């Protein structure tokens, strides 16, 4: 076997902060229990690291989106605790659900009939109360196929939980209508931001994702939710440039004085997109402004504030999600899931 390659990009997941965030969201969920959305490789931070920490903190209901995400999840938790949000589109999907023991989330009458015709069994049911994404429409909830399902968790998903929008209360009213019409063992409506909307939104199970991983969208989570992902990149070259010299593609930065600069092993292929142009990396409290454009594999920074840095030293990539979202215009979700494969996790 080839030896382990040396790392030049480090993504460390603070599993204590992750466990803390789950417990905080579980507490904020009141009498409901918090589950955990672990889709998209735990929002890019790695299921293999995050899922055991969430499980050990006490989470018992896990949500993935794709069937492809099932094997890694059930390596760590019982299959009966895993729900697959996209549900079964064909007999193969249904057979896979039965073979593994995970719960499909039924999202339409067609999926309901497929699940019944291929042998039924425990499932979850998603009702669309206004987001118009996946889920049974309100006018379909009385259908005979729905009555035949063995529903563990009846759920719906909020479109605007991160805003104080009238849409939230409207969706709550429609969810209650669905609850009155459809028998289920447990009920679930709130995502991370939905938990902050208060007890009316909690029901039996909440489904936080983003806030587990450090995302803060509402004031109720400020001072409670901790940063989980810590990112560091190595310097691969330092150089001195003279006044009048430019840096990077299209020469968008020109030095007005002699400068010491460094090339950092971090680029848009690593999810550090060009929307970071103009931001700074950091070394302790020293700010290292990015000079010129972000390249595929590199950025160049100004070492004026930390002149002793040299090749092989590590610098911090500021990944406070709220601040980063503000600078880049990316959502906190995108900032996490965009991180590429070259990070040593
Ligand atoms: C992704 C997802 C969640 C988690 O949402 P966050 O906003 O990340 O907390 C919950 N429920 C469903 C159906 C989802 O798709």
TrEMBL record:
Pathway: Amino-acid biosynthesis; D-alanine biosynthesis; D-alanine from L-alanine: step 1/1. Keywords: Isomerase, Pyridoxal phosphate. Its cofactor is pyridoxal 5'-phosphate. It comes from the Bacteria. Its EC number is 5.1.1.1. The active site is at 39 (proton acceptor), 249 (proton acceptor). Gene3D superfamilies: Alanine racemase, Lyase, Ornithine Decarboxylase, Chain A, domain 1. It catalyses: L-alanine = D-alanine. The keyword Isomerase applies. Belongs to the alanine racemase family. This is Alanine racemase. It comes from Qipengyuania oceanensis.
């Amino acid at each position: 076997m080839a030896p382990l390659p040396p790392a030049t990009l480090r993504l460390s997941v603070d599993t204590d902060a992750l466990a803390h965030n789950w417990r905080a969201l579980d507490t904020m969920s009141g009498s409901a229990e918090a589950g955990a959305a672990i889709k998209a490789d735990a929002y890019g931070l790695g299921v293999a690291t995050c899922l055991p920490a969430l499980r050990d903190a006490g989470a018992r209901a896990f949500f993935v989106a794709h069937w492809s995400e099932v094997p890694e999840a059930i390596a760590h938790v019982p299959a009966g605790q895993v729900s697959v949000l996209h549900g079964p589109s064909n007999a193969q999907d249904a057979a896979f659900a039965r073979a593994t023991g995970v719960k499909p989330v039924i999202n339409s009458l067609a999926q309901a009939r497929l699940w019944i015709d291929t042998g039924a069994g425990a499932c979850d049911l998603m009702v669309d109360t206004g987001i118009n994404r996946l889920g049974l429409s309100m006018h379909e909830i009385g259908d005979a196929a729905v009555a035949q399902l063995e529903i563990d968790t009846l759920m719906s998903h909020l479109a605007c939980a991160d805003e104080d929008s009238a849409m939230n209360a409207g969706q709550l009213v429609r969810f209650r209508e669905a609850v009155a019409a459809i028998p289920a063992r447990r009920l679930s409506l709130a995502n991370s931001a939905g938990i902050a909307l208060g007890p009316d939104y909690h029901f039996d199970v909440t489904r936080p994702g983003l806030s587990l991983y450090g995302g803060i969208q509402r004031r109720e989570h400020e001072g409670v939710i901790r940063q989980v992902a810590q990112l560091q990149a190595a310097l691969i070259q330092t150089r001195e440039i003279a006044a009048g010299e430019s840096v990077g593609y299209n020469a968008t930065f020109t030095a007005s004085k002699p400068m010491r600069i460094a090339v950092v092993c971090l680029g848009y292929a690593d999810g550090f997109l060009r929307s970071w142009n103009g931001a700074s990396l950091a070394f302790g409290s020293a700010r290292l402004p990015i000079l010129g454009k972000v390249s595929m594999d590199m950025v160049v920074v100004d070492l004026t504030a930390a002149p002793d840095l040299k090749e092989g030293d590590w610098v911090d990539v500021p990944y406070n999600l709220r601040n980063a979202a503000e600078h880049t215009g990316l959502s906190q979700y995108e900032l996490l899931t965009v991180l590429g494969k070259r990070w040593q996790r």
